[in-house]
TrEMBL record:
Residues 17-87 form the Transposase Tc1-like domain. Signal peptide: none annotated. This is Transposase. PANTHER family: SI:DKEY-77F5.3 (PTHR23022:SF135), TRANSPOSABLE ELEMENT-RELATED (PTHR23022).
């Protein structure tokens, strides 16, 4: 090879532009499919070369993020919600009690971490993750929070129906409103789970006279409590629970430890979520 000439590129600039256009248009296309496309026009390169070329262009293969399936009706509803609430004053959002349910598994995804080990040492106790048949069980939790901090957290017994949901609200909501000093003009938030919107629950809520925040379906990214659930699951996983009793106890402990500043930051930036929904015309956001 002559000095200064360097290695000859295997793909022309035209081929690179084609690859970029193709993956931008169809992100799920594989490197092997792209290789075959180029082969059809007499450009023979390996799938590895294609992958390396795309990485050099800033395009990396990643596991797709899981998001709710949004119908056109869902997107329209989300967009309407964002537009009608984006100009609400911060004082309004500070008075919202955000609520939701989540599942904590005894041996869940948070426990699936890598271990550094030597060859043939896979089954040494320190290198294994203890499990039990059928996953070892899980617990369902109902919780709430506001800008002022976390509210009550309660375990859901069995499969929750509308009646149990109403009992949980009766036992926890007003106490949380009082503890968080939300005042008389507070707003109750819930998603559109069938138990939350059943005929009996709607009638129950009407009797209570609470101000209910209208909510678009398929919108976990619009509920900041989802961020707190993530914080909670990470914190609980570190505690090395051995059974569901410890799992529940650690959950209550870690929920109470969530800093007020974390809650305040999530709520104070709520307008940014709404603006993001408007920007993507009702589609899912990074939140």
């Amino acid at each position: 090879m002559l000095p200064g000439r360097g290695r000859k590129k295997m793909l022309t600039s035209t081929a690179v532009r084609y690859l970029k256009r193709r993956v931008e248009k169809s992100p799920r296309v594989t490197a092997e499919e792209l290789r075959k496309d180029l082969s059809d026009v007499d450009t023979e390169v390996s799938a590895q070369t294609i992958g390396r070329t795309l990485r050099n262009e800033g395009l990396h293969a990643r596991t797709p993020r899981r998001t709710p399936l949004l119908s056109p009706k869902n997107k329209k509803s989300r967009l309407q919600y964002a537009k009608s609430h984006v100009d609400k004053p911060q004082k309004f959002w500070d008075s919202v009690l955000w609520t939701d349910e989540t599942k904590l598994e005894l041996f869940g995804p948070m426990d699936q971490r890598y271990v550094w080990r030597r060859k043939n040492k896979a089954y040494e106790e320190k290198n294994t993750l203890p499990t039990v048949k059928h996953g070892g069980g899980s617990i369902m939790l109902w919780g709430c929070f506001a800008s002022a901090g976390t509210g009550k957290l309660q375990r859901v017994q069995g499969t929750m129906n509308s009646l149990q949901y109403q009992e949980i609200l009766d036992d926890n909501v007003m106490q949380s409103v009082t503890n968080l000093r939300l005042g008389r003009r507070w707003t109750f938030q819930q998603d559109n789970d069938p138990k939350h919107t059943s005929k009996s629950t709607r009638a129950w809520l009407q009797i209570k006279g609470w101000n209910i925040l209208e909510w678009p379906s398929q919108s976990p990214d619009l509920n900041p409590i989802e961020n707190l659930w993530w914080d909670l699951k990470k914190a609980v996983a570190v505690r090395k629970h051995k059974n569901v009793t410890e799992l529940e106890a650690f959950a209550h402990d870690e929920w109470a430890k969530i800093p007020v500043d974390r809650c305040k930051t999530l709520v104070s930036s709520y307008a940014s979520r709404l603006k993001a929904v408007i920007t993507v015309k009702g589609c899912c956001t990074k939140y």
